[in-house]
Automatic annotation (TrEMBL):
Its cofactor is Zn(2+). This is M18 family aminopeptidase. Keywords: Aminopeptidase, Hydrolase, Metal-binding, Metalloprotease, Protease, Zinc. It comes from Marinobacter confluentis. It is an enzyme of class 3 (hydrolase). Belongs to the peptidase M18 family.
Length: 430
């Protein structure tokens, strides 16, 4: 696939996926169009050789797989992992704030948000709403306002002379977005706003009562190519929807001859400990039902590539990287190494990826954090520990990780896609 075609598809995916639920819905649509069959965890499964399947949990995590032409205990499984969630501001259960004629919403910080860039942005709102319908049934629906409905205005520098030298953000008092002006005595409820939005997006929906929601604000500016020569792609949620898109595209486009799997978990940004997170039982449950009694032998022959973005060397902050391990944008995906097991990469898993890339003539890089700095982590060590499977941590290098708008190289995504597609049809792993 050409860089231009890949990036246009990626931009469409990013713009359609403002929340984990929307991201999973986008991946489901891609899988359905490719002929994959949906599985229900509540029902019996009858899996066939050479077919594609997927299962969704909580609407925000998905496991998709191809059974391949060989049994898993003989061929092993070529697995790729990513995560669907991104740091953001989520609406509190009782959010209405009325101050000086402005209606604001209280928000909770989700994950390790870089807070300062959220000020003075055009914000929209999306997520899942749970409601009681006219028949007395509890239903779920996705909503996305799709336009700028709020902002978090900065305090003018005239009122904060230290803003450029000593600015801190109080997550409780500084972050409530402003939605609109309201007259004195206004009693607008957020639940009424949600009912109207449900009716607008899902005509015919009759919500008797809003029972709950999981909604997050997001940057209304769409993803785009940037740079004088379109060297970069800028978007919200590149960490880690970029890897989700690469993973699902790789699984769909692989030959299907070998057993292959993609797992995209929710809640990575907050530790992964949930029913649908990487520390939960979702993936293990799918493997039990697919592999049966041969699961142990299957995993011994398998490998997981955990794809989560890496820190590219920022030209204004070069001293934040080890001098021999500073990944550059558009110079290839980054093999992430940490001998304290914050990343699960070992010499064997790295060798498999290097060998595949060398065979295809694709570039790659290596990242090791400075020895005097702490190292982040991702789903790789969690999956390796839970399943006992050989694992590699890798990712596309980017700037501004966990900001409201991040930047990656326009050529690195398709490079990782080419490598992962080949990995998913590679004949012999070990």
């Amino acid at each position: 696939m050409k860089h231009a075609d890949f990036n246009q598809q990626l931009i469409g995916f990013l713009n359609a996926s403002p929340t984990p639920w929307h991201a999973v819905a986008s991946m489901k649509q891609m899988l359905d169009e490719a002929g994959f069959e949906a599985l229900d965890e509540k029902e019996d499964w009858s899996l066939e050789s050479g077919k594609g399947y997927y299962a969704i949990r909580n609407g925000s995590s998905i496991v998709a797989f191809r059974t391949g032409k060989r049994a898993t205990d003989q061929a092993g499984i070529r697995m790729v992992g990513a995560h669907t969630d991104s740091p953001c501001l989520k609406v509190k259960p009782n959010p209405e704030l009325r101050r000086k004629g402005y209606l604001q919403l209280g928000v909770e910080v989700y994950g390790g948000v870089l807070l300062n860039p959220w000020f003075d942005r055009d914000l929209s709102l999306a997520g899942r709403v749970t409601y009681l319908d006219d028949a007395g049934k509890v239903q779920d629906a996705l909503i996305d306002f799709r336009k700028a409905i709020a902002s978090i205005p900065s305090l003018a520098i005239h009122l904060d002379r230290e803003a450029n030298s000593n600015r801190t953000v109080n997550a409780q008092t500084d972050l409530p977005p402003v939605l609109m002006q309201v007259p004195e005595g206004d009693n607008t409820r957020f639940s009424d706003i949600l009912k109207d939005q449900l009716q607008s997006e899902h005509p015919g929906t009759q919500a008797r009562k809003i029972l709950g929601y999981e909604l997050g604000f997001y940057d209304a500016q769409p993803a785009s190519l940037v740079g004088l020569k379109d060297d970069f792609i800028a978007s919200a949620r590149l960490d880690n929807l970029l890897s989700c898109f690469i993973g699902v595209r790789s699984l769909i486009d692989a030959s299907g001859e070998e057993p292959a799997l993609l797992v995209c978990n929710d809640h990575e940004e907050v530790g992964s400990m949930s029913a649908e997170g990487a520390q939960g039982p979702f993936l293990a449950s799918i493997l039990d039902r697919w592999c049966g009694a041969g699961r142990g032998r299957s995993l011994a022959r398998s490998m997981m590539i955990s794809a989560d973005n890496a820190h590219g060397v920022h030209p204004n902050y070069m001293d934040k990287h080890d001098e021999n391990h500073g990944p550059l944008l558009n110079q290839g995906p980054v093999i992430k190494v940490n001998h304290n097991q914050r990343y699960a990469t070992n010499s064997r898993s790295a060798a498999v990826y290097r060998h595949i890339s060398d065979e295809l003539g694709l570039p790659y890089q290596t990242f090791v954090v400075r020895s005097d700095m702490g190292c982040g982590s991702t789903i790789g060590p969690l999956t390796a520990g839970n399943l006992g499977v050989t694992t590699l941590d890798i990712g596309v290098p980017q700037f501004a990780m966990h900001s409201i708008r991040e930047t990656a190289g326009a050529r690195d995504g398709v490079t990782l896609y080419q490598a992962l597609r080949e990995f998913m049809q590679w004949k012999t792993l070990f």
